[in-house]
Each structure stands twice: as C-alpha cells, then as structure tokens.
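Q&A log
Question type: sequence-to-structure
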Amino acid sequence: MEITLEAVEKVMNATGADYQTAKTVLEQADGNPDEAIKLLTPVSDETKASTDDIINKMKAKVKEGNVDRIQIKRNDEILLSIPVNVGIVGGIIGLACIPWALIAGAAAAFGLGCTYEIIKKDGTTDEIKTEE
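Response status: OK
Response body:
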C-alpha cells in the first residue's frame, strides 16, 4: 500500500483534516482516499460529544502527571501513539504541546470502538473505553 501526497491532499481538501490525520486515516483505508474521506466525514453531534468527552478524560489524566504517552488501539492494534513530554517545561506548557486536535481527529476517524490508553512512566496503563 502506497500513501501518495496526492491522496493525502485529496482527503485534506475534502474533509479539512490536517496532514497527519489524513495520512493516518489513509493508512487505515489501505490508501483509498474515497474510503478515508468516508471515515472522516460523517461526524455527528453525538460522535463529537463522545470525542470531546474522551479528550477531556485524557486531559485530566495528563494533568495528574506521570504520563509517558497516549495510545489509541482497536482490536489490540495500535492506531496512534503520541508521546507526552509534560515534565520538560512544566505542566501547563507541556499540556498545550500535546496535539489534542490530532487525537480528536483520530477518535472521530477510527470510530468509538477504540480503546484509549494513558501509558504512565512506571509502565502502568489507564484505559478510557468507548462504546461502538
């Protein structure tokens, strides 16, 4: 499967998604831009509310500290893994640096049948599960 710049741009133009989200969804759609667009387009108010809820729960966990990374998984496959560098400059600046828009876009794109994991620095995980 080859993800071309043309396919990424097509998805970005059709959905308003950023580059990384478009590329990630294209990978899930086996490089098919039309399928990727379908995955990103139908975001209902209910899905947006659920996505906002997920993001708020993640932000609360990150504010608690000791978080190493955030992962989105479906069927034990890691779809997205983002490191959290909160301790570098301080909690507030570190929290602002996490690409919440990317996480929200991925949550909407992959649907609500995913498991969202907060991986702590000591190796333990906190899960935020959603309903399909």
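Response note: The chain has a mean pLDDT of 75.
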